[in-house]
Amino acid sequence: MTVETVIAVGRSALELTIALAGPVLLFGLVAGLGVSIFQALTQINEITLTFIPKIVAT
């Protein structure tokens, strides 16, 4: 095998790996960001909701 053949095989292997793993990784990224945003938003809402009973009690 020549150097060019090894480089071509390695390149095609990397392209195939990216093509197969890319959609799965992209979906995981989007899902993770969605969950993180949801957690951040609900945390803010929980903090504001804890003040409502204190305001009503006074």
Task: Describe the protein in words.
The protein has 58 residues and is mainly alpha-helical. It has one domain (3-57). It has one helix at 3-57. The chain is rod-shaped, with a radius of gyration of 25 Å. 0% of the residues are buried. The mean pLDDT is 80.
Structure characteristics:
95% helix
Structural domain tally? 1
| Structural class assignment | mainly alpha
Assembly classification? single chain
Total E-strand runs: 0
Strand content: under 5%
Q: Count of DSSP helices?
A: 1
Rough shape? Answer: rod-shaped
Chain-averaged pLDDT: 80
Ends: how far apart? 83 Å
**Over all CA atoms, what is the radius of gyration?**
25 Å
Helix content: over 70%
Biggest sheet, open or closed, and with what strands and sense?
none
Q: Give me the strand/helix succession.
A: H
Offer a quick outline of the entry.
This protein is mostly helical and 58 residues long. It has one helix at residues 3-57.
Summarize the SSE layout with pairings.
Elements: H1 3-57
